[in-house]
Protein 1
Amino acid sequence: MKQFLEVGKLNNTHGIKGELKMLLWCDDIDYLKQFKTLYLDDKGEKTLEVLSVRPQKNMAIIKFKGVDTINDAEALKGKVIYGDRNDAKIDEGANYIADIIGCYVVDIDTEEEYGKVVDVVNYGSCDIYDIESWGKHKLIPATADIVKEINTEYKVIRIKAMKGLFDED
C-alpha cells in the first residue's frame, strides 16, 4: 500500500500573502484539516508545514509555513500535494481509492473473476469501478447491493453481479 497519497493540487495563488487555492482530491476539507504536514512528493521527502486550511466553494485555501509572498506561492502552483496515510483517520469501513485500484473483482457466489480495478470515478451518486479484463472495460457502481466485501489487504473485492452487469453486448 502506498504510504503517501494524493490529497489535492495547488491550482492557483490566493491574494498576496502566500496563500494557495487547492483543488481537493480527498473527500472533504475536514479530512484535509487533519494534516499538520503535507508533502510535495510521494516519498515524503519534501515537506510543507500547514499553517491554516479553510474552505472556499469546492476548494480549500491553504497556507504553508515559509510561503509568505505571491512569488513564493507562484512557485508551488500546479503541484500535486500528498499526505501521509498515518496522519489522518478515515471512517470505519471506508477505503482509499489508491487501495481499491489494483484489486481483483470476484463473484461472491461463484468465485468467477471479472477483472481488476484500474480506476475509480465518481459522477455524483456513487463511486464507479472501472474493471479491466483482457483489454475490455466494464463499469460497476460501487453500491451496497453490488459490492459485498472489500479486502484491500488481499486485493480482492467480492460482488453480487446484477443481471446485465457482465452480459456481453
Protein 2
Amino acid sequence: MNRSDIDISSSRVLIADDIQQNRELLEAYLVDEGYEIFMASDGQQTMQMVEQHNPDLILLDIMMPRMSGYEVCSQLKADAARRGIPVLMVTALNEIGDIEKAVEAGCDDFLTKPVNRLELRTRVRSLLRVRHLANERDRLLAYLEEMEHRVLRGE
C-alpha cells in the first residue's frame, strides 16, 4: 500500500482551544480536507469530547482553563485505550522548556502560533496517516491471533 493510497478524508479531528477565533481559524484551515471536526473550549470538555467522539487526532492548545493541554495529553497517554490518538500541540508558548514539557506529557508533534496553514495541513495529514496505519496493524494482529487460536483448536 502506497502512503498516498491511505484515505484519511473521513478522519475525526478534535480542536481544543479556549479562544474561539483560534478554533475557527484551525477549522477553516482544515475544512477543505473533509475531516469531521469537533471542538472543545477547555481541558475538561476536551476529555468529554474524546469519550464521545473517539477522535483520530487532537489539536491541543496548552494554556486552557479547567485543565491544561499538558494535563489532557498526560491523561490520554496514560489511558491504554486512548494513548494511540496523536496529539498535536498548538501553542503560543515557544520556550524550550515548554516544548520539553509538551514532549514529556506525550505529545506527538507541536506547532507554534501563529500557525502556518500549509504546515498545519501537512502535519495533520502525516499524523492521520500514522494513526490509520497503526489501526490497520492492530486489526491485522487481532485477525492473525484469532486465526492462530482457531488452528490450535483444530477449527
Protein 3
Amino acid sequence: MRIALCDDIKRYNLLMERLFTHFFTQQKISNYEITSYTSGIDLLRNITSSCYDLILLDVDMPHLDGFQTAEQIRQVDSQIDLVFATNMQDQVQRGFDYHAKGYLYKEVNQEQINILLNRLLTERKQRKKNNYPVRLIGERADILLDLTKILYFEIHNRDIYGITENETFAFRGEIKKLEEDLKNKGFLRTHRSYLVNINKIFKKLSNYIVLHDGKEIPISKKYQSIVKGELKSQWS
C-alpha cells in the first residue's frame, strides 16, 4: 500500500507515520510505503496516475489548502483514496465533493487510524473481486476496471466503451464475450450494443431504462422479456 501524508506541520506527518506504521506492524503487513509532504504544492509535483493508493490531506494548509489540492489530484487520478484531516467538523461535507473516503479529527489517535485502515483494506479486497481486466486501445498495459463504478458498456464496431460517472474506458472486444465474462456480476444485456450495471438502473419504461444519472439506455425487442424478468427478480 502506497501512502502519501500531506500536512504543513512536520510533527503531524511524523505522528501519522508512527500510527500507520504501528497498524501495519500489528497486522504483519510489510508491503507498504509512506511518503510525507509539507505542502499541497510539493505533493502535486509528485502526483501521477496510480502513484498512491491513499493520500491523507490536512485541510488547513497555507497557499494551497487540502480541498484545493484534492481538486487538482482528481484531475490526474479519480481512483486514489483521499482522506482529510481537520479539527473542524463543519468542513466534512465539502470533502465529499472530492469523493473523500473519510475524515480524521485532530488530534488523530491510533484507534482512528485502525478503524480507517481496516475499512479501506476491506474495500480494496472487495474491489479486487469486482475488477475486470482490459487492455485499453493504444496501450500495452492491462488495467483493472472497478465494475462497481461502471454504469454501462457500449459497443461501436469492435470498440467497447466502459462508462463511469467521471470517465470512459475504451478497449477492443466483443460484447458477447464481455457478457459471458460478467455473468452473475450484476450486468444486464438490454440491446445488441449495451450491457448495463443493474445496480445503476433507476427505472424501466416501455422501450428504455433510465439510470440514476438520467442516462436513457434502449431496450430492444429481443431483450424486453429478459430485462423485465431480471429487474422483477432484483426489485421484488
